[in-house]
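residues and backbone:
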Amino acid sequence: MSSDMIKYKTVLFDMDGVLAEVSKSYRAAIILTCHSYGAKSVTDDIVTEWKIRGNANCDWTLSRNLILDAKDGRNDVTLEEVTETFEIFYQGTKDTEGLYKLETLIPTRQLLTELRKRSKGGMGIVTGRPRSDCMKFLKDMNLEDFFDVHYCAEDGLKKPDPFPVQSVCKQMGIEPDKSVVLIGDTPDDIRAAVAAGCSGVGVTTPEAVAAQEAKGKPHTSAPMSVAMKECGADMILPPGFVELVNYFAETQ
């Protein structure tokens, strides 16, 4: 490998759309929640538009904002109501399975194992998920031992604020500089990384790749991918980010 390719020393990950395939879980729960409060006009494309716009790292708040903005949405819905409805869809009830059961791991375990070997200070997660949801996914995928630090919804400020990235770096005992890279799937991820003084790499989600392939276009032309590049992403990788390992030095 050429030394010119070595860019990073430590890797951090967003979870949804990067590690976890969530088009049938979190994304579906947003749309179902909106429809439950009359906002039938809310589609996947509209959710994507709002996430491109930014400050959309909490799906409960995003769902409520989408309902309030929609002409057919209930204009007096509270965040508490929306959160409860969202959680019924996502977590399930005694009579219905939760959408979280449809989540799958996007990158291979082999790749994550190799990245962990090469990542200085270990690997960290910077997610907007509640901690219980984050840890449940890692447990379900048998990845609990792969990540040393987890920054979750309960831990304070949310991306695009740089604090989540800075906090994880501090806990890992590393300086937040360009050798630290956050892998994300939205502009909020990239903005947070750049504002923290770190690098950001975007990944196109599986469903976005499929949409672009149907048009005969490359994955980098997906609206979210274009937006991430405009926010300062070093590069945009396809789902599974296999190429990422080439930008870390091999272990001796």
About this structure: The longest strand covers residues 180-184.
